[in-house]
Amino acid sequence: MQFSSETLTFEERTVAVSLFPAEKRVVEHLLAISPFELGVMTSSDLSERSGASRSSIDRLSRKLGYPGLKEMRKALLMEAGRGHDGGKSTEGGEEKPGDIADRIMQAIAARAQAMGRILAERDEIATLTSWLADTRNICLFGAGESAAVCNAIYMRLVRLGLPISFAEEHHTQVTLSSLMKPDDVAVAVSYSGETKSTLWAAQTARDNGARLVSVTGSPSSALAKRADLAILLPTGSSLPGSAEVLDRVVAMGLSEVLFQCLVSKQPELMAYSMKIDDAFGEART
């Protein structure tokens, strides 16, 4: 069915067409969530939460007259009266910025707590700490927003004098990975675990005998399957917010986790960090 009128609301469009059961689940979920979650939701989030495939989501978008999920989300957010505020005060049908900030920070906190439980209950972080403390070379691989996670880990651990490298450009990542040797440690970060450039660098490192560590939200991904050690992010529909967005924020916390674990294992490493502070001296004040 072709929608000729731009005035039809999302709900009016859903009534005007015949929906498959999977499409109905997507509609029900979209109408039930808060503007915050709707604003950051990705197709993978919606697929996991509704139990519908990405192809079903794409088909629903086109059936309702939207080019894709992005436009469908935008239409929902723009509709008057959409202010689904979960008990918060709104102005003009829009959630207040302070309430949005509170909702986002609570979502990050919930995911951080879940990540803490995962790390506390499993042995991966202890194993990784041992590998990092006793290796010739450490390389970090990641693209896009995952590169920001790599950079956070690099900036923190380089302060301990560790032999660690990171370059954002993916050809340089492959160059570094091709120079790795047995028992070196390669840490690859990819939420999906399917980023081609990251897989390329990770596989090259592993082919050269390096230990491969993956940080990913998908235990069944190509990256996780290739890794000698997999650290899983707390993704899941039971947690608030977009996993694809917020789990990257939580992943940055690994930089401080690893820093503290390494100092606990080898207190003498802290002397390097203190030396760096001395070098900056009054420039920090």
UniProtKB/TrEMBL annotation:
<keyword id="KW-0804">Transcription</keyword>
<dbReference type="Pfam" id="PF01380">
    <property type="entry name" value="SIS"/>
</dbReference>
<keyword id="KW-0238">DNA-binding</keyword>
<dbReference type="Pfam" id="PF01418">
    <property type="entry name" value="HTH_6"/>
</dbReference>
<dbReference type="InterPro" id="IPR035472">
    <property type="entry name" value="RpiR-like_SIS"/>
</dbReference>
<dbReference type="InterPro" id="IPR036388">
    <property type="entry name" value="WH-like_DNA-bd_sf"/>
</dbReference>
<dbReference type="InterPro" id="IPR046348">
    <property type="entry name" value="SIS_dom_sf"/>
</dbReference>
<dbReference type="InterPro" id="IPR047640">
    <property type="entry name" value="RpiR-like"/>
</dbReference>
<dbReference type="InterPro" id="IPR000281">
    <property type="entry name" value="HTH_RpiR"/>
</dbReference>
<dbReference type="InterPro" id="IPR009057">
    <property type="entry name" value="Homeodomain-like_sf"/>
</dbReference>
<protein>
    <submittedName>
        <fullName>MurR/RpiR family transcriptional regulator</fullName>
    </submittedName>
</protein>
<feature type="domain" description="SIS">
    <location>
        <begin position="128"/>
        <end position="285"/>
    </location>
</feature>
<dbReference type="InterPro" id="IPR001347">
    <property type="entry name" value="SIS_dom"/>
</dbReference>
<keyword id="KW-0805">Transcription regulation</keyword>
<feature type="domain" description="HTH rpiR-type">
    <location>
        <begin position="6"/>
        <end position="83"/>
    </location>
</feature>
